TrEMBL record:
The keyword GTP-binding does not apply. Keywords: Electron transport, Heme, Iron, Membrane, Metal-binding, Respiratory chain, Transmembrane, Transmembrane helix, Transport. Belongs to the heme-copper respiratory oxidase family. It comes from Muricoccus nepalensis. GO terms for cellular component: membrane. This is Cytochrome c oxidase subunit I. Residues 539-563 are annotated as: Disordered. GO terms for biological process: aerobic respiration; electron transport coupled proton transport; respiratory electron transport chain.
Amino acid sequence: MAAGQPVPGEAHPRQGLRGGPSYLTAEHGLAAWFLTTDHKRIALLYAAALTVFFFIGGAGAVAIRMELFTPAADLLSADGYNRMFTLHGTVMVWFFLVPSIPNTFGNFLLPLMIGAKDLAFPRLNLFSWYLFVGAGALLVGALVAGGVDTGWTFYTPFSTGYSQSYVMAAALAVVLAGFSSIATGVNFIATVHLLRTPGMTWFRLPLLVWALYGTSLVIVLATPVLTLVLLLIVAERAFGLPIFDPALGGDPLLFQHLFWFYSHPAVYIMILPSFGVISELVTCFSRRQVFGYTFMVYAILWIAVVGFLVWGHHMFVSGQSLFASLVFSFLSFVIAVPSAIKVFNWTFTLYRGQITFEAPMLYALGFIGLFTLGGLTGLFLASVPIDVHVTDTYFVVAHFHFIMVGGAVSAFYGGLHFWWPKVTGRLYPEAWARFAAVLMFFGFSFTFFPQFVMGFLGMPRRYQVYPPEFQIWHVLSSSGAVLLAAAYLLPMGYLAWSLIWGERAGEDPWQATGLEWRTSSPPPRDNFRAVPVVDTGPYFYHPDKEGPRHDRREAHQNQGHET
């Protein structure tokens, strides 16, 4: 992308920015952070909140894996175990996986990538953060007060008529988080439509911007359905309305249809931004344009549309008609096509590329491997006979985690390492980062691959007591979780170290092509001194241009001489 031709009469965006005030140096004081409308600061506020929720959800996972180390109930009662996996699922799904990439990378990068000064509605952006934090505080309060025992899916009629836990508080917390997501989605859609810099046509947008745009469409269209169904749970519990409870004349399957109508598109809310991140990493570290850019764009939109038509594959054993199951099975195979297109296009982008194995690239390759395996096992679950056999077993748990955790979290860490120099202006120790990336891949594989085996053999999920023949698989899984936890924690150490002792990054340590690399690191308050003008498509890498491994230190030294 030939980005950065300034408006006539203005300074080139590379000039006059070094040493200028940035979001990290201007407006000192705690109050300034909590009242800011700078999209970059709000992204960091989201990152701080998400880190807290990640640790809370991770603590639930640790308790689960410790309990499952032996076949007997050693640490938790049956009710305590129910509350623990509900804590883990609810926090990780709605307070980490759904908002992680859109609310952090999306907030920080979207205006930079399209040459804008900020999002379309800065105050709405800050308000969405307050909604998110308020929702999280309400959920944590419910968990501290006694927890919830329904699972993260809030299945009726247990959640409406039988559970004595804090269901209403947890449901209202998820509703508030949903409003926060809707506000972010509306903001992103308006920003992409209205604030693109001159020359930034639709098919010159980076793929991360397309992914955030498609995700925002899904959020705005699907989240109101989740809001409705959770408010109906609150209404039934509070007022005894006959909606879902069959004892009152309600229909519990209605809840499942409404819940999964949102929650399957929510899978793509979690994974579509990851596709965008991986596309940015693969093209940068292979020094090639993305193969089939147009197909990648249409694949994103295809997923966003067809994702609304496959919710019934979660209900093959719930009593829906055989004809409906066959239709949903067919559509579930159809939606695998655009995901396969992305994997093939990433592979062909790598083919004959000048590949360098920097830490972000290792995370990207790990994502491709884990997501591919998770996607292939999704085809098993799309087949009605196999799904009937493995429903409610650890096979489903493994599939979900390979997609959501192996995929989305790998992409999150890959993006974190890729844009860390831009966010902070500092470089991290590359050797430690590579080690953490490799450790995450193997730790995740050792944690969740044994669950495919035990699930196929019949081990049901959500059981704390299990037959002794499954113990070896649980021991392998719990041991792998130790490696995975180390891989999650290790980057926090060396990234914090880099804030003080890391080398200066310069504007573009990776020799990348996006507009975000055409300004200082960290960027100034308004992102660009001059309005950048775009005159080519994205990812235009010159075949003779050196890659990041050669240029990182050299670029830093050159910048020091120029300064």
